[in-house]
Each structure stands twice: as structure tokens, then as C-alpha cells.
Design brief:
Layout lengths: L1 H21 L2 H9 L5 H14 L4 H38 L2 H9 L2 H13 L1 H7 L6 H11 L5
Length: about 150
């Protein structure tokens, strides 16, 4: 019952926040474009930071396409995704290792990934990118696994 209440509250907050945020989109677009050639850098930095705290990267992909066009948006998102993966991996490896390992105890699927990566290494990391798992969670698990950064 508590999970249902929390889920309902999150949906309501997302709806309210989304409606409020929608009014600010033109201002944000103008702010990013006003930075000139630094606009994509500012966008990538924001996407890396917000995606690292589990904001969906698809939101940023749509915005990148609208701001920078198809080719520019794709390039910006490739940089943002690689930056996010690097940041999450490094944070998990250096600072959050114990926290991630404790969290894995209650999540058998992610714990299985942790064990498989330790056994299979880089090959398994590439295969993980094809799964529907949240890439941010996968990056944190990989960082805690002790495997090398691909």
C-alpha cells in the first residue's frame, strides 16, 4: 500500500513539475543559445549532472535535437552519455563503492550483474548496454564491480 501511495505521489509531482517546467523551456533555450559556442558545453554539463541523479536521458535527447538539430543534438548526446557513464563509474569506484554494494544486497538482478561482470569483464559490459536496464544504475554497478573502464 505504501508503494502505491509513494508511486502516486511521484506521478503527481512529475505532472505538476512538468507543467511548471514547461513554462521555462523557452527561457532555458534562450539561455543555452546565448552562450554561443559554449552552449553545447553548458548543455552537456547539465545533462551529465542531472542524468547522474536518474533524470531520464531521453528528455535531454529531445531537447538536444530541438536546440542543436539532428546531427548536432546526436553529437551532444553522445558526449553527454559518455560523460555521464564516466562520472557514474568514477563516483561508484572512488566514493560510493560500499553504498552500491549494500544496495545490491536488496536487488538480486543488479547483484547478478555485479557477479557476472566480475567473472566476464569488458565483454559483458558491452552486452549490458543492450539491455533495458537503467544505464545510470548499470554504470554505478560496474564502478563497484572492480572491472576496468572500457
Amino acid at each position: 500500500m505504501i508503494k502505491l501511495v509513494v508511486l502516486s505521489l511521484l506521478v503527481v509531482l512529475a505532472f505538476v513539475f512538468g507543467r511548471e517546467f514547461a513554462h521555462h523551456i523557452p527561457t532555458i533555450e534562450h539561455w543555452i543559445s546565448s552562450h554561443g559556442w559554449l552552449g553545447p558545453v553548458v548543455f552537456v554539463a547539465g545533462a551529465v549532472l542531472l542524468t547522474s541523479v536518474f533524470v531520464p536521458d531521453t528528455v535531454f535527447a529531445v531537447i538536444a535535437g530541438a536546440l542543436f538539430g539532428v546531427v548536432g543534438g546526436t553529437l551532444v548526446m553522445i558526449l553527454a552519455c559518455y560523460g555521464t557513464a564516466s562520472l557514474n563509474f568514477t563516483l561508484s569506484r572512488r566514493f560510493l563503492h560500499d553504498t552500491v554494494c549494500r544496495s545490491l544486497a536488496g536487488r538480486p538482478r543488479l547483484a547478478a550483474i555485479h557477479r557476472a561482470v566480475a567473472a566476464e569483464g569488458v565483454r559483458f559490459q558491452f552486452l549490458l548496454r543492450l539491455t533495458p536496464l537503467n544505464p545510470v544504475a548499470v554504470n554505478y554497478v560496474l564502478g563497484a564491480s572492480g572491472t576496468s573502464f572500457p
